[in-house]
Amino acid sequence: MKNILIMSSKNGSNFEAIIKYFKNRNDINFKLLTDNKDAYVIKRAKKLGIDYICVLKDEIKDFFLKNKFDLVVMAGFFKILDKETIETNTFINIHPSLLPKYKGLNAIEYAYINNDLKTGITIHYANEFVDEGEIIFQKELEINPNWSLRKLEKEIHKLEHYYYPRIIEKLLGLNVLVVGGGAREHVIAQKISKSKLLNTLYLADCNDGFSSLGNKIEYTDYINLALQAQKRNISLVVIGSEEYLANGLVDVLNKYKIKTIGPDKNFARLESSKLFAKKLMEKYNIKTAPYKKITSKNKIDKYLSYFKSPIIKADGLAKGKGVYLSDDINSIKKELLYYLNGKFDKSSKTTLIEERLFGDEISLFSFWDGENLLHFPLCRDFKQNEKNENTGGLASICPIEIDFETNKKLDIYKNKLFELLKKEKIKTPFVVYSGLIITKDDVYVLEYNVRLGDPESQSLLNYIQNDWLEIFYMCSIRALSSIKLIENNKQITTIVMTSRGYPNEIKKGVEIKNINSLNNKTEIYFSNIIKFDGKILSDGGRVLSVTSDNRSDIYRVLNDIEFSEKEFKILDV
Ligand code: AMP
Ligand code: GLY
To answer: How far apart are CA 559 and CA 573, in angstroms?
Structure first.
């Protein structure tokens, strides 16, 4: 149980916003302190059922010398506390300007009278000077010149009521749930487990290779998962793979007021319906290959004749296997017939025929928080195996360098993507994964995903040196503008160990021995393994991946592993 004291001298609208925000939490105890027995905040406390105490100004120091709290939140408290008092507890304060501008009283009026173009709010640790303690968080607000002072005040208060509780939540430590069971979720869980912001990490559907990183949650359905998350005071759920998103996990969690990284079911169609994605790209003038939608077998010959070099794509999700590429038109025709006959069930009853594009592929990951789009350094996923078959990804590197001209084209694309998300009013925070191809003339979108990639995540999350929980959390509370990315000084590589035959039929349940990471030099992330009887057994096509900034170390680890089905790609770029 955490004990939080909120201090307010007057109206107490921030007090009320905080109490309401935390009303489902069973691990926080709030109390109000006021120095004004006539303050309106007392009425609010009574209505909300919060204990309050009136302490006269001269007795405040004595009160804090005797009472300890996990956090003291000043919310419109008009007395400066001396050094001795401040040192008794951790005090935070909120101020309606972008400090150090306009310390003290009337900060909003000053910004207004001075015709400032922007102002904002600052949350900071309090010290014995007015509005001078270390800054924790700031949020800017653009001032519309037509606003009245009253309107500006209202907008500032809106920001305060939204961000103050959420930043308090972060300061108290976060309970986080990671959903999914691949190597991508392994690296996400690993990075979160190292965060200084973490309280407790929970895992749902994890595999045996990383279950020790957190507490496992077993669930029967999404509502059950949401109820369990609520009971455990989980603030944030990071969802790794697309099936959960397409099936509406975010919609359920959000109903229970649990924050998520992942789009709602409606916008998850950006990945789960290629047709939906194509239509949006057309609407926003985003370059993508010409296509034709086909549902009827009678139209196969006619439609294929429209394309120079056709490929086919199932409209719906197909576990990364929905694209068929071939130079031989007869095998395309044959495959198209399978697709329309339901090779991927409902997913391929509608299929797209699309012009094949040629060039280098890149993966661009961008975090969208409902307002800001934060782009990460480019990654590359190596999808083709030796037989030139498309797989779910056999290796990745981060970052990728591109030339100046391509970068300019990429910037144009980034602006269009921003416009799309803004104009479509996408409110759910999520990761936009743009699968791009650089052709002779421009940057084209091959496909969209709405989550992090695998195996790109293993490289990207090791390349970026920030606290990853901070990135996820700030994304979930519309505060990405406060994140500055810190990059590693060396490129990171990931190589996936697969079972012989992948992406086609493979053998499962084969023992793997001698999995040894080189201390601090390589990381091993598990995708498909089970632990049984003290042994580690393979359980799928992609088994594990090894990540490092040193390729020879990666190959040393892979060569040392004993696994009769072992295959991996040798990267020569
Ligand atoms: P998936 O992740 O199953 O949607 O597969 C996407 C992959 O299919 C891309 O990364 C490309 O390698 C390939 N692909 C998709 N569309 C095209 C296209 N128009 N031209 C060439 N390759 C494509
Ligand atoms: N790297 C491919 C994917 O995550 O879909």
So the answer is: 20
478 with 541, same domain: the answer is: no
Between the CA of residue 160 and those of 14, 84, 121, 153, 165, what are the distances in Å? 7, 28, 7, 10, 9
Q: Quick one: 398 and 319 in the same domain? A: yes
Q: Please, which pLDDT band fits residue 191 given cuts at 50, 70 and 90?
A: very high
Ligand 1 atom with the smallest distance to the CA of 274 is: 4
Helix axes 40-48, 13-21, angle to 10 degrees: 20
Q: Is the CB of 315 under 6 A from ligand 2?
A: no
Provide the number of structural domains found in the chain: 4
Selection from 159, 40, 163 nearest residue 111 by Cα: 159
Token digits of residue 320? 């990364």
Q: Which of 288, 385, 390, 440 to mutate to test the pocket of ligand 1 (most atoms within 8 A of CB)?
A: 390
| Alpha carbons 254 and 237: distance in angstroms, whole number | 10
Amino acid in the structure at residue 507: K
Which ligand 1 atom is nearest residue 354's CA?
A: 19
Helix intervals (H) in 127-248: 149-172, 183-193, 222-231, 242-246
Domain boundary among 459, 482, 505: 482
Token match 């997913």: residue?
347
Q: Is residue 223 part of a domain?
A: yes
CA 173 – CA 25 distance, rounded (Å): 13
**Residue-range definition of the domain harbouring residue 181:** 174-261
Three-state DSSP at 266 gives coil
With a 6 A CB cut-off, is 185 part of the ligand 2 pocket?
no
> pLDDT per residue over 284-310, tens digit each?
999 999 999 999 999 999 999 999 999
The pLDDT of residue 242 is above 90: yes
How far apart, in whole angstroms, are the C-alpha atoms of residue 497 and residue 183? Answer: 11
Cβ of 242 closer than 6 Å to ligand 2, yes or no, is no
